[in-house]
Structure formats: structure tokens, C-alpha cells
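Table S2 (text version). Query chain:
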Amino acid sequence: MVKKIIAALLIAYGIFGLDFLKYIPVPTPPEPVVILNVNKPSQEVIDSIKGLSSVVTDPSDRAKIAIFNYEFATKVKGYETNLQQVNDVYTLAGKTFFKEELVGKYKGLGDAIIKLISKLVSDNNHDLTQTEKDQISEHFMGLSWSLLQKE
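Corresponding C-alpha cell output:
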């Protein structure tokens, strides 16, 4: 049977040359889907969030967490708030957005995010300045970018 197929292909090649190949559909790879258009952050931001994005291994979770952090980063700049309220907003929004999906799935992720915020604006509760909110936004936007990169 295989010999007959090879013989048929050789006869087709002899008669038509390589023109018969144009009738065989060649699949084209799909265009990569862009989830978010996030600019690459500064090297300083990349260094400060380095270990954070590597904790999340599932590509679907990486995309969801990237979207969540992108939205948080765009909104935090406009909040008139203090540090505790920013922590509360992030936590409650995360619980609402992810429900129980990520509970216990990525060990150390929550602590690393709290540590990042504390490193940016300190541990003491105070009203955030616009500069501090911009820093938080920049770093969470960087986290979003980092999560969207293929590991």
C-alpha cells in the first residue's frame, strides 16, 4: 500500500512537477494574541519584581494576574487614600476577581506583593503622596508586563 502511494506521488511529480503541491493546504501558525499592551518597565522596576512573576507558573493564571495588576496599576494613581486602604482595595479586589482560584496555589505570592508595597512606601500607615502612588502604579504595571513575558 505504501509503495502504491509513493508511486502515485512520483508519477504526479513527474507529470506536474512541484505545481501539485500548491493544492495541498499548508497550515499557517495563528497570530499571537496580545492580551495587554504594556510597555517594558525600567530596569530598576524589573529588578525589584524579579522573583514575583516566576512564582506563577500556569499561563492562564499569569494572564489573569497580569490583567488584574494592570487594572490596579491604572486605578491606584487616582485614589485619594492611605497605605492600609490600598492594601485593602488590592486584597478585596483580588478576592472578588479570583474568588477561590488562587488560594494556596502559589506559595509566597501574597507575602511578596505585601513586601513590594512596603518596600515602595514603608510599613507605616499614612496618606499616600502622588509620587508614592505613581511608584506603586509603575511597579504593578511592571509586574503585569513581567507576567505577560514567556518564561
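Notes on Table S2: The longest helix spans residues 130-148. The chain is about 60% helix and 0% strand.
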